[in-house]
Design a protein that fits this description.
mainly alpha, 416 residues
Length: 416
């Protein structure tokens, strides 16, 4: 892609924006009529936002300083709650406003999927990818909950867009913007932090190695911007927690449950253990598993976990009684999930041979690999779905191109 021409793409972008806005507006109104349910992580994010606003203290489980999770999403909630407090003391209204903001961010995510796909795909294929993501039912299911995915995905997509601009333009501004967006995304969910090394892959290209000095300077800017954006979090942890914490302290629990092939049955494995003890037990179980049952544990950490992650959508598993037509259609579409995963994976596999798409293919592999050591639940596979839908768009483009080529190729006539 040379550069996105808004004069040529504005019809597609406008149509996509209109569909996404109307679609999410419907669900904003629907969600506003129902109470917001807080359970699991959502309860603690809500508590953390409360403490931030009331005591100007970053907590999670309790009322004391904590670093179990990075502060991006609790800060977002605290800001929305502070905004709502200007108009009403109702906490329910504040949570509904947070839901509405998340749905609007989902509209932005749809547009980002389109502009990311346009780096290599034609308009119709990019629109298809973005539209399928827009109406993908787990998007609504997620944004009705107060969870990190709803902030993480738009910022992850923004980072990916900025990185593709970096690959195309190689300017200082593109490196700085990409480093900043990576830092913000890391502060929402730290699993992306290793992407700090992503620009180093450009040194594998011959033209980059020939002009390595400007590239090295720009890469230093990328790293420096990331570090500067992370400094407030690092300093806060040194002051409040009296230890160096690069991202967070919450990896031990999912690592421990990820070491257990029967994690869905043995839910008490972490009871009474500190984070350090959970991490030590997880490492011990992993080492013992690979020493005593190497093939079984290799299968568990690859095929089995992939099945758990992608086998079902992050959505309601049971259709409600007396469900209406729209609910039935939505439920049916949600359970086409495996079709999109397979077709998208085929498209991203083909994308390894396509400029720009190959970066999305490697990114998807990275997002999956960093999740494999941890507990395999379908919620953690959900952030990879925008890229799999770009893979679906890639398949649509390749099939269409093949059909056009076949139609344009004159058939050989049999000799008389």
């Amino acid at each position: 892609m040379k550069r996105l021409s808004f004069a040529k793409d504005r019809t597609w972008i406008g149509l996509l924006a209109a569909i996404a806005l109307v679609y999410h507006a419907y669900f904003i109104v629907k969600a506003w009529r129902q109470p917001v349910l807080l359970y699991g992580d959502a309860y603690y994010y809500d508590h953390s936002a409360h403490v931030l606003n009331a005591l100007h203290l970053y907590a999670y489980w309790s009322w004391g300083p904590a670093a179990q999770v990075t502060p991006g999403y609790p800060l977002f909630l605290a800001l929305v709650y502070r905004l709502a407090a200007l108009f009403t003391p109702s906490h329910e209204t504040a949570m509904h406003l947070a839901q509405a903001c998340q749905h609007l961010l989902a509209v932005a995510s749809s547009l980002l999927v389109y502009v990311i796909a346009r780096f290599r795909l034609p308009r119709y294929a990019s629109f298809l990818a973005a539209l399928l993501w827009t109406v993908y039912p787990p998007v609504i299911y997620a944004n009705d909950q107060l969870l990190t995915e709803n902030l993480y995905i738009p910022f992850l997509l923004a980072f990916v867009w900025s990185f593709l601009v970096l690959v195309r333009d190689r300017t200082r501004t593109s490196f700085v913007a990409s480093g900043l967006l990576l830092a913000v995304t890391t502060l929402i969910r730290p699993s992306v932090a290793p992407l700090l090394a992503a620009p180093a892959c450009l040194f594998l290209q011959r033209e980059t190695r020939r002009a390595w000095k400007p590239m090295l300077r720009n890469y230093a800017l990328y790293i420096a911007t990331f570090a500067v954006a992370m400094v407030p979090w690092w300093v806060r942890n040194l002051v409040a927690m009296h230890q160096w914490i690069t991202t967070d302290l919450d990896a031990a629990n999912p690592l421990l449950f990820g070491s257990d092939p029967t994690f869905y049955k043995d839910t008490n494995i972490s009871n009474g253990l500190t984070y350090a003890q959970q991490k030590a037990l997880a490492i011990q179980r992993i080492e013992e598993g690979f020493c005593t049952h190497p093939l079984a544990y290799l299968k568990w950490y690859t095929l089995d976990k992939l099945g758990w992650l992608f086998g079902t959508p992050w959505y309601n598993s049971v259709l409600p009684q007396h469900a209406g037509l729209l609910t039935r259609l939505t439920f049916a579409y949600a359970h086409l999930h495996l079709v999109w995963v397979i077709v998208g994976a085929i498209g991203l596999a083909a994308g390894f041979g396509m400029r720009y798409v190959r970066w999305l293919s490697w990114l998807t592999v990275f997002l999956i690999v960093v999740q494999l050591p941890f507990i395999p639940i379908n919620r953690y596979a959900y952030p990879t779905m925008p890229f799999l839908f770009v893979g679906v768009g890639t398949v649509a483009y390749l099939v269409t191109a093949w059909a056009r080529l076949r139609k344009a190729t004159p058939r050989r006539t049999a000799a008389p």
